[in-house]
Structures are given as C-alpha cells and as structure tokens.
Design brief:
The structure holds 2 protein chains of 2 kinds.
Chain A lengths: L3 H6 L11 H13 L6 H32 L6 H16 L3 H5 L3 H31 L6 H23 L4 E2 L9 E4 L2 E4 H23 L1 H11 L1 H6 L4 H27 L1 E2 L3 H16 L4 H21 L4 H15 L11
Antiparallel strand pairs in A: 1-4, 2-3
Chain B lengths: L3 H4 L12 H5 L8 H20 L3 H27 L6 H19 L3 H26 L4 H21 L1 H4 L5 E2 L11 E5 L2 E4 H24 L2 H11 L1 H6 L4 H27 L1 E2 L1 H5 L1 H14 L5 H27 L4 H6 L5 H14 L4 H9 L1
Antiparallel strand pairs in B: 1-4, 2-3
The chains are: A mainly alpha, B mainly alpha.
C-alpha cells in the first residue's frame, strides 16, 4: 500500500489536465453583469446575496453528488436530511433560548455552532440508518433507488409531522447576526456573510480531505473505478457508508443554514430546495464536487441577477442555465469519468 | 438498467385466436381468478355507481377513480414498461386541465372550445415531453428524473404566478357545454334522473375506459415489447438495433398525451382547474404510490392501485381517526395514527412493496393463483 517509492521512481508522470474554462464562469458572470446594473450598490448587494445562497445550496448538494459519484446511488430522499437538520435546531433553540437573545457575538455564534453540531449528529445517525434500511438493498438499480428513496422521503416527512407537528414553525436569528453591514449605499446582511464563511470553509475542508488525505485518495479512486479499489483490499462498502453519513450530515448543516435564512420550518422545505439541488448537480456534472461548487454559485448568482433585472424571467432562469450548460456540455460542467 | 425483480414479471404470449374479450384486452388477460374478480368488481361498481349509490359524493369518488386509473395507467407505461421515472407526469395532467379550463373560460361553453382546448393541450404536452426527452434521455436515463422534477416545479410556479392566463393560485372555474350541465334533463331511468351530471360521469367513464384499453393495446404491441426489452437490458436492445433513445422519447410522449387527456377529464368533471388539483407534487407522489402498490408493468395494477388509493384517501382516514382516539392515552402512537398521517402508512407500504413484492398487488395475486 505504500506509494512513497513511486514518487521518486516516476518523476515525469503526466499531470491531470486542468479544465479551467468552467472555473472562469463565475468570476466572468460577476464582472460582466456589473454594467447591467445602474448603480454599484445593488450589484454588490445582489452579488453577496447570490454568493451566500450559492454556498448554502452547495452545502446541501455536495453530499448528494458525492454519494452518487462514489456508489452510483441516487438519493431522492436527500431533501429530508435538509428538513431534519433544520428541525434539529429546535432541540438546541428550545433550552438555550437565552443565548439567542444575548447581545454577545460569542454566545450567538456558540449557539449556531451548537445547532450545527447537533443537526449534523442527528442527520448523520439517521443517514446511517437510512443507508442500512432503505438504500442498501437496492444497490445497482437506479429505478428502485429512486422509488425506495422517495418512499423513505414520504415516511420521514410524515415522521417530522408526527413529532414536531404539521404547522410551520418560526425561528429567530441570534441577536448579533441580524441586520446588515452598510458600505456606502450597499447593505450586506450579516447572516449572508456568515453563510459565505461557512460555505467556503466547508468547501476548503472537503477539498483538502479529498486531495490531501489517504481517505480522500480512496474516495476519488472509488469514484473512478470502484472494483479496482476493492481488489486492492479496501472495503469500499465501509467507505461508502462513511461518505453517505458525511453527505447526510452536510445536508443537515445546509438545513441549519437554510432554516436560519428562511426563519420558517416546514417538513417539505428540504424537498422544495431539492429542485435547486438537482439543477446544481446536473449543471456541475453528476459526482463532481468542484462542479457542484461552481454550479451552485452560478445558479444562485443568475437567479439573483435575473430576479432584479428581469423579474418575469426569474421563474425559469434556473431551467435556462441548466439548458444552456447541457447544450454546451451534455454531461455537465465537469464530467466525471467512470469506468 | 437490468432489474432482476422486474424481469420476473410475466410477459404475455403473442395474440392467438380467441374471443372478443381477448381482443379487447389485447391478449393480455388478468391471468388470475382473484384479480379478474377484483377488476370485475371495480368495473361494475364504476358502471353502477350513479344508479346504486345516490348522492354527489359517491359519484365524485367514482369519477376520481376513473380519472386516476387513466393517469396511473399512463404513468405505468413509463415507469413499469419503459423503466424510467418521471416526476413531470402531473405537469401533463395539469396541462390537460388548464387546456380545458382556459378554452371554456375564454372561448365560451361550447363543444368546439372543449375540442380546441384539448387539442392545444395535447400539442403542448407532446412538444414539452419531446423536448425534455431529447435533452435528458440522450445522456443518461437518470438525468430524466431530475430534469422532469426541475421542469415540473418551474411549470407549477409559472402556473400559479401567471394569474392573467391561468387564474393563479385560485385556479379558474368555468361553465360546461349545455349537455353536461345538471340542468340538462332527459327523463328518469331506474328511479334516477338522467341529467347532464350523469352524462358527464359517463363521458369520463367511457373515455377513461377507452384510453385504458388503448394503453393496454400499446404495451402489448411490438412497440411495447421493445420498451420492455429496453427496460430489461438497455445495452442488448441497442445491440439488436433498436434506437433506445427514440423509443424512450416516444414512450414518454405517449404517456404525456394520456395524462393530458386525464387532466382534461378531471377539469370537465370538476368544472374547475387550479394548481393544487392537477399540478401539485403531492399528486405526483400519489400516482407513484398507486402504480407501485398496484403493481408496476402490469397495467391492471394501475386499476387496483388507483381504486384502492382513492378509496383509502376517503375512508382510511375515518378508520385511523377511530384508532387514534382509542390510543389517545399513548402519546406517540396517537400522533402516528392521527388521520392526517395516513400517508405515513402508505409510504411504509410503498417501501415494503418495492422490496418484498415488486409486482405489487397484481404480481402477488398472479403468483398465488
């Protein structure tokens, strides 16, 4: 299993070609759209809003695309982990309501951190159960995966209704995260900055884990050729359970962020946002984390810009982005090669 | 997309000689005594409802069963016979409903506006299904599920926003042609007044029956056999020289057209169409449950599934209400059996039927006989 020797023996291994064009899409979109806005401040506000939204979508979508990439499992029930993560905040917000009202940044952030931790633990555990009960018996058949995960989604949504009630629940943002920073004319909501921070750090951690650790190496190898990884003596099943749990926990994290953004909880909130998640995953290329990141930002920015510039088009802007990308690259921005 | 359990579903033999009934059923009889009996009960109940059960509620339930049988059967063509999952089926259902609603509302309550509305809706559905299929099925069948979900949700939002055309969230109600109005009277038969409402019911019934038999014919035609071959082994079907993509797109267009007719029937029956009656995602889930619980890839499964589901929707909740009351002392069990949680139990039944009896009720009945 040691690979240190090969590094010295083969110094001239051909490097993987880097596909940079899709990476330029987001900066290009941000820069090129600027002249369309009359004033700079609304452009800044919308760009930040779009980036924040994109980060949240990325959090929710990344787990699903990873699960698909590694094990060819399509989880239509992924949305329920978003809802579960959102509802899990109630476990923390109930007893610690005082922390939210306190005018202290640290208590507020601590509360959010605790919410995120509890939500990720909850969704992680339920993800493990979901994998064991719902998904494991249907490996290899997409049709059955879609059916069974939709069934799991129905049951889980109804369970949320049974536990927390069917009516929407409102939650409030902690005190210091409300309001906005004002730069000149541009107002930037504090929570959006926080969301961008969380999204970027999760992306950075995922990138490092996937590219700099042994487990990441195995996951990437598993995406490309699962049988080869297995024949080298690694238990890809176990790896996959880990990825599924991590993916569910990421959806839970996304759910917390999304819940505080909407400030209203419904059992169907995960399924509603799943439409965006699917679009993002298709745009990015099924199974690609980088593609998922670029796709999230692209879709969210376009939605925000179009919503301001041509509100009539806003309803179909996501579909338009998807159609345009698929015309350009039928497999998505970063096609994942798979043997 | 090989699927060991689906392949165990029976494939009927080619048409040989046989009676009229065999021809009507496209040489694909129920092949189970219990199933034949059940189907006969459903058929007779639907024929006799207006005379046997007076009142508007049983008639409404019966009409709903007819319409959902057609909707579920058209979905089965896609899910059970072609092996692809669409989440846009209610979109076509809704297009049919809106076609009728908009035409009758704007052009006046005549038969020609019914015709215009239906033709326009069919054309739109066919075009949309074709484009979606072309974009998504070309690459991977799995794209199809996600893209249909995305497009259907966009159409749902569009329909509820464009209130000038569609009536928005409120939907739109309209007048029917004179012959279908309750005020239109033809006399009485078996103590029941023959009025426009009754004619409307039989219009729904016979169109649904005719379309169902047509779908049964399609899945038992050589075209239907190719669809089944693709479902069983896409690669092999391609190797035999069938253009998999074209067949899948054709199946998706046919299924969309049948769903459009079902939507038109529902609008005609309700004299109303809105986003929640035809377009919502909840109905999509209902149809999925009907087809899978009834039995995928059997057509008759759609009949049993739809009839059971609509009845459960109306009567299971009453049963659960009484169970919940008797369990009021046990906190969690009481909320799990609350009448509003009926979808929970159907969801569990759904998951169980995907695992334990992939042929659904029909497959089960055929195995035991």
């Amino acid at each position: 299993m040691t690979s240190q020797t090969t590094d010295n023996a083969l110094p001239d291994l051909p490097r993987t070609p880097r596909d940079l064009v899709p990476l330029l899409l987001v900066p290009a979109l941000i820069v090129l759209s600027a002249p369309l806005f009359g004033n700079l401040s609304s452009w800044v506000t919308l760009t930040v809003a779009g980036l924040a939204m994109g980060m949240m979508i990325f959090l929710m979508a990344s787990g699903m695309t990873l699960v698909f990439g590694l094990m060819d499992v399509i989880n239509f029930g992924h949305g329920v982990f978003i809802s579960l993560g959102a509802y899990a905040t109630l476990i923390v917000l109930g007893p610690l309501a005082g922390w939210a009202k306190a005018d202290s940044v640290w208590l507020n952030l601590g509360l959010l951190g605790l919410c995120i931790l509890v939500a990720m633990l909850t969704t992680g555990v339920i993800g493990a159960l979901f994998e064991r009960i719902i998904v494991r018996p249907v490996y290899g058949s997409h049709l059955k995966q879609i059916l069974v995960t939709v069934g799991g989604l129905i049951v889980a949504e109804q369970m949320i209704h049974a536990i927390w009630g069917a009516s929407p629940i409102t939650i409030a943002l902690p005190e210091t995260l409300r309001g906005a920073f004002v730069f000149g004319d541009a107002a930037i909501e504090r929570y959006r900055v926080f969301a961008i921070g969380v999204g970027l750090s999760v992306f950075a951690v995922m990138y490092l884990v996937l590219n700099r650790t042994r487990i990441g190496l195995l996951i990437r190898a598993g995406v490309e050729n699962p049988e080869m990884v297995e024949s080298l003596g690694y238990r890809i099943r176990r790896l996959f359970v880990g990825v599924f749990v991590a993916g569910s926990a990421l959806a839970g994290l996304g759910g917390v962020m999304w819940a505080f953004y909407r400030q209203t909880l419904t059992a169907g909130m995960g399924m509603e946002v799943m439409v965006l998640v699917f679009i993002v995953i298709i745009v990015g290329g099924l199974g690609s984390i980088g593609g998922c990141f670029v796709g999230s930002l692209l879709v969210a920015l376009v939605a925000n810009y179009v919503g301001f510039l041509a509100p009539k088009l806003a309803l179909v802007s996501n579909i338009l982005v998807m159609a345009l990308v698929l015309v350009w690259r039928p497999q998505g921005l970063f096609p994942v090669t798979r043997q | 997309m090989t699927d060991a359990t689906l392949s165990s579903l029976p494939v009927s033999s080619l048409p040989r000689q046989g009676g009229l009934l065999r021809t009507i059923l496209s040489a694909d009889p129920p092949r189970s005594k219990a199933l034949s009996l059940l189907l006969l009960v459903v058929l007779l109940a639907l024929v006799a409802t207006p005379f046997a059960l007076p009142g508007s509620q049983p008639l409404g339930t019966a009409a709903k069963i007819c319409i959902f049988i057609l909707l579920a059967a058209s979905y089965d063509l896609l899910l059970g016979y072609t092996g692809i999952v669409s989440f846009a089926h209610t979109m076509f259902f809704g297009i049919g409903g809106y076609g009728i609603a908009i035409a009758l509302n704007k052009l006046g309550a005549t038969w020609s506006s019914v015709f215009i509305g239906l033709v326009a809706a069919l054309a739109l559905s066919a075009a949309l299904a074709f484009i979606i299929g072309l974009v998504s099925l070309r690459v991977r069948a799995i794209f199809f599920s996600m893209i249909t979900l995305a497009v259907a949700s966009a159409v749902l939002v569009l329909a509820s926003q464009m209130s000038g055309i569609t009536g928005g969230e409120d939907g739109m109600s309209f007048q029917l042609p004179p012959e279908l109005r309750p005020a239109f009277k033809l006399g009485t038969f078996l103590d029941t007044a023959i009025n426009g409402r009754l004619l409307a019911y039989y219009l729904v019934f016979f169109v649904a029956l005719g379309m169902f038999l047509l779908l049964l014919r399609i899945v038992n035609s050589p075209f239907g056999r190719v669809l089944q071959a693709i479902r069983e082994n896409e690669f092999r079907a391609e190797a035999l020289g069938y253009r998999v993509v074209s067949y899948r797109i054709a199946a998706s267009v046919i299924s969309a057209l049948a769903a459009t007719v079902a939507g038109a029937l529902l609008a005609l029956w309700l004299r109303y169409n809105g986003p929640d009656t035809t377009l919502s995602f909840a109905i999509m889930i209902d149809v999925l449950l009907m087809v899978v619980i009834g039995g995928m890839g059997t057509m008759y499964g759609a009949v049993i599934g739809a009839a059971l589901f609509v009845l459960a929707q109306s009567y299971l909740q009453v049963l659960m209400g009484s169970i919940s009351e008797s369990l009021a002392a046990v906190p969690l069990l009481a909320s799990l059996t609350h009448p509003d949680r009926w979808l929970l139990w159907l969801g569990i039944l759904f998951v169980a039927s995907v695992y334990a009896f992939p042929g659904g009720i029909v497959g089960r009945l055929r195995k035991t006989s």
